[in-house]
């Protein structure tokens, strides 16, 4: 495990972007696992800036996102597809057809979960997975549970997650209660993992995840078993 302390959020964003950029420069056909949430926004901004300068080429990159709200279509501004388009994909030269997010409007949820796992496996797995961490230790929407869920699955979001995400919606009632998320196995099978954590309020959970017991009640704790985990953090 490599721990990289950042001076502030801008520094965290640059450091994370540097790691992703190195991945894409060294392997232009990389499959990137991407995340939503407020923490990665600065990382995406930095990558866009370097793309605009001509330093990074995304034309052969493929991406798979961790999760999507159930019941929201990609043109809903609260959906994670929309978030990714707005905050990243629309500003770089990635081919949209090479960007994948679970379909929150699929007719059959189970079928969609199966399709998503198959897709990841057909892409040859994930080269670098970017992750945020929730206050309850969730990664993607793998919420604290009695057992680790291996494959892509439907989750009922925790009350604390719904509250935390309400800031993006007009009211808490609008926050979807369910989501489709990549499972722990696909995340752990990524060849490299980059976890970003920003803010005082993430210090305790990051410490529990990295140094506490490995338990499904802190889903991120499984990352202790990954052989190539980098954590970029700023707890100021
Ligand atoms: P945040 O979310 O980056 O908005 O704090 C992280 C997460 O819940 O995964």
What attributes does this structure have?
globular, alpha/beta, binds 2-phosphoglycolic acid, 3-stranded antiparallel β-sheet, 236 residues, 7-stranded parallel β-sheet, 7 helices, Rossmann fold, 32% helix, 10 strands
Task: Describe the protein's topology.
Layout: E1 2-5, H1 9-26, E2 31-34, H2 41-53, E3 62-65, E4 67-69, H3 80-87, E5 99-100, H4 109-122, E6 128-131, E7 153-156, H5 159-165, E8 178-181, H6 184-189, E9 192-198, H7 203-211, E10 229-234
Parallel strand pairs: 1-10, 2-3, 2-6, 3-5, 6-9, 9-10
Antiparallel strand pairs: 4-8, 7-8
Bound molecules: 2-phosphoglycolic acid.
**How many strands, what sense, and barrel or not for the largest sheet?**
7 strands, parallel
Helical segment count: 7
Series of secondary-structure elements, N-terminal to C-terminal: EHEHEEHEHEEHEHEHE
Distance between the termini: 21 Å
Give an overview in words.
This protein has helices at 9-26, 41-53, 80-87, 109-122, 159-165, 184-189, 203-211, and strands spanning 2-5, 31-34, 62-65, 67-69, 99-100, 128-131, 153-156, 178-181, 192-198, 229-234. It has a single domain (2-234), classed as Rossmann fold. It is α/β, with parallel strands linked by helices and 236 residues long. Helix 2 (41-53) links the parallel strand 2 (31-34) and strand 3. Bound molecules: 2-phosphoglycolic acid. The site of 2-phosphoglycolic acid has 6 residues, from loops.
């Amino acid at each position: 495990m490599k721990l990289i302390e950042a001076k502030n959020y801008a520094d965290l964003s640059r450091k994370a972007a540097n790691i992703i950029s190195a991945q894409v420069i060294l392997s232009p056909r990389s499959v990137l696992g991407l995340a939503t949430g407020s923490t990665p926004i600065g990382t995406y901004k930095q990558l866009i800036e370097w793309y605009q300068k001509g330093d990074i080429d995304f034309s052969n990159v493929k991406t798979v996102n961790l999760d999507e709200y159930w019941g929201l279509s990609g043109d809903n501004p609260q959906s994670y597809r929309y978030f990714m388009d707005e905050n990243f994909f629309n500003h770089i030269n990635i081919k949209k057809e090479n960007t994948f997010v679970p379909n929150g409007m699929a007719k059959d949820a189970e079928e969609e979960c199966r399709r998503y796992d198959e897709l990841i496996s057909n892409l040859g797995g994930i080269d670098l997975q970017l992750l945020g961490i929730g206050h309850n230790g969730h990664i993607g929407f793998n919420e604290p549970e009695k057992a680790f869920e291996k494959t892509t699955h439907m989750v009922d979001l925790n009350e604390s997650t719904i509250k935390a995400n309400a800031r993006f919606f007009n009211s808490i009632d609008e926050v979807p209660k369910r989501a489709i998320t990549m499972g722990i196995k696909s995340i752990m099978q990524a060849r490299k993992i980059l976890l970003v954590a920003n803010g005082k309020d993430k210090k305790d959970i990051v410490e529990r995840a990295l140094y506490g017991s490995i338990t499904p009640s802190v889903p991120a704790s499984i990352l202790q078993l990954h052989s190539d985990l980098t954590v970029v953090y700023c707890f100021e």
